[in-house]
Input
Amino acid sequence: MYWKISKTDFICITVFLIFLGAAFFQGYKSVSELNWGFNNFDSNRDMGFVHTILNGNYGQDPSYTNEYIWYNPLVMIIESAIVKITHFPVNTVVTKSGAFLNLLAPITFFLMMAVIFNVPIALAATTGFLFFNINDLDGWMAATYSPWLFPVSFAQTFFYTGIIIIYKAFKEWKLFWFILLGINLAFCFLAHTAPTLLLILITVHLSVYKIVKSDPLLKIQAIIDVIKKGLPCLVLFIVLTLPFTWFVVGKYKLHMINTYTYEYLHEFFQIKNVFMLFKANLSLSLLIAMYGCIYFFKMNKDKVSRLIVSSWIMYCIVLYIYTTAIVFIRYHFNIKFPGIVPSFHFFFYLKAAQALFFGVGVCHLLSLLYNYMLNLPGKIHYIIIRFEQYMIPLTMVLLVIINYNSYAHRPDFLFNRTLGLENNIAYDTHKVYEWIVSNADDSKVFLSNENLSDFPLLASGRKMVAVSPAMSSPYVDYIKRNNDRNKMLDILSGKESLPAEDIFKKYNVQYLLVNKNEKDSMPSIEKYFPVLVYSNDSYFIFYKSTY
Output
């Protein structure tokens, strides 16, 4: 027995692979000259966790003494493994590996579309996913291929494989698929929370639908059947996610204190800028996707795919509105609701649905064009029939050729690369990082201003008094730590009255990292940190051995 594909499918798969290569070429071009990325919060956080893992301290918060891991660890575990195998520096791996690892996203998106629809629609949808989906948005804002290894960009792979598994599970109703779903959900959660929550909601939605629509006389049996399928899935999910849930559930009880981690709102996603967001997304591809959405729900008779896609969109919208609204409500009315993740994560998967509908819409429009051309006079319809199998792939090739220059210059490639090139010549900052990694024990605590707490301190995986709010554990009181940091800096600047020894001793601060301007404005440095252990033209590190 062998797998046989049609000529049309073969052509579409070939074109997809060419498109994948073109996307990779552009992605790798963006990072090939870089050993340092564009100095974003996520990369600094990931580097810190990687250093912690490589130092044999998995489970620890890289920034705070006696605190635990708080961010989904899979990306950092993979990066740590790459560093261990290749012996490349941590910064190089974090900067360049996204161009390779994120290729899994368009591959699994294509497979998802091929399973739920067919290969030609998969090609059209993946064309939209790769080349038309984000306009001038950053790669972390919308589903696409990005060369930067943001967890949100990498984790989408498990969302698409999850959709495939859910589709097969509810089509065939076999235990095997539910076991596979539990494994997929676990890896998805270890990568990121948002897609996991969506997959769980979609699964529950379809399960409830199956029970509700079952024969009234067999309701109990339907419930038992759902439990039999769902229980192994749940058990596998719980067991396989223990490397993370052991800490956030077992240690922290999911009790969030620091709201900054889930209240981050880029200006596009603020309620007052809703029209700015609409304008940034308005394009011909969006209009085609809207047409495809209408056609899908009007003409698609596959109940399982309709339920999956409709619940996918519904829960994305609901969670996007919720995660946006809770920030607005807390800031304006001081009423606090439970947080999840920043709202853009759910917008991200709405953009994935846009790519799906783009594929459906463009293929149906081409079928209408094909039928119209068949009715033209003369022998043209014979030519049209002969070239039917090439219609979709040739159209996609033409669209990509027309748009490729714009695609190659989108901010995710060009602007972020420019920032990366600028960061690569920040020699003094990198030298401080290298000294800290090579010379400072990762259990010693640093004091610095907020800017330096992100880089080099967070990136080096060294303990500190306080990191920036968005990168501070949601389970730790950031405001208290930040206030204490500011008090210590004020003491060193002579703004705070004595006694002061206790607050330094409370955190067991042994290193002080300051820039040149700070050093010149802190007359009490030598009193509290008498030993200068490192300096360059821009930065100084002072040390105190004991209290």
User: Anything to note?
Assistant: The longest helix spans residues 303-333. The mean pLDDT is 93. The CA atoms of residues 20 and 107 lie 8 Å apart. The beta strands are 445-447, 463-464, 509-515, 531-535, 539-543.
